[in-house]
Specification:
- The protein is α/β, with parallel strands linked by helices.
- The chain is 60% helix and 13% strand.
- Helix 2 crosses helix 3.
- The longest helix is centred in the last third of the chain and has 15 residues.
- The protein is globular.
- Bound molecules: BIS(adenosine)-5'-pentaphosphate (AP5) and magnesium ion.
């Protein structure tokens, strides 16, 4: 079973849902930068104040803020982990590669969750998080296409990428992902 994983995919693909399930069943640390940022907003920290408006617009929070969060968590983690929603652009991916080299903990698998825009939008509109309104969802999808999709070839070139069809029930998709983690 792979111990160091990364979940990649557009907003609404189910990264958080599947990451939480797998992390629980395998005892991995689930590190979602979106969840960590929302927690900072909730407690009203300086970091949260800087991130709040950016998140509400559906743009990316600065690499510096996000990297600081991830670095401290990974440095304290002695077991396996699952990164969800990070990295989000090539500069974050390169910073992560350098950090993991320093820690001697290479990524073992990148799971790319693929789903049609119509289904993504439908899932997010029915969830209704504060950044789940149609205009912001469309902007998050544009940001994903422009800034995050270059990571697909980055990880494919490293031989780490496996794509998963993210349509179906939560259980069906979990089974597809579990198969990949055991390969
Ligand atoms: P983030 O929290 O990462 O949000 P996102 O990428 O927009 O993705 P979501 O969390 O909305 O979708 P998901 O793929 O996790 O799907 P989920 O499982 O929730 O980021 C939010 C913001 O934070 C960004 O816009 C940015 O501002 C900032 N940020 C975060 N990370 C950053 C970074 N690294 N750098 C810079 N900025 C960063 O599922 C969605 C819905 O569908 C749920 O309601 C779920 O119950 C439902 N669902 C899941 N699976 C299924 C299924 N199989 N069938 C039916 N419904 C399903
Ligand atoms: Mg999520």
């Amino acid at each position: 079973m792979k111990q160091r994983l990364l979940f990649l995919g557009p907003p609404g693909a189910g990264k958080g849902t599947q990451a939480q399930l797998l992390a629980e069943s395998q005892g991995l640390l689930h590190l979602s930068t979106g969840d960590l940022l929302r927690a900072e907003v909730q407690v009203g920290s300086e970091l949260g104040r800087q991130a709040e408006a950016v998140m509400a617009r559906g743009e990316l929070v600065s690499d510096e803020l996000v990297l600081a969060i991830v670095r401290s968590r990974l440095q304290q983690c002695s077991g396996g982990w699952l990164l969800d929603g990070f990295p989000r652009n090539l500069s974050q991916a390169e910073a992560l590669d350098a950090l993991l080299l320093e820690l001697g903990q290479p990524i073992e698998l990148v799971v790319l969750m693929e789903l049609d825009d119509a289904l993504l939008i439908q899932r997010l509109l029915s969830r209704g998080r504060s950044d789940d309104n149609e205009g912001v969802i469309r902007h998050r999808l544009t940001v994903y296409r422009e800034q995050t999709t270059p990571l697909i070839s980055h990880y494919r070139d490293l031989g780490l990428l496996q794509a998963v069809e993210a349509a179906g029930t939560v259980e069906e998709i979990a089974a597809r992902i579990t198969t990949l983690t055991k390969a």
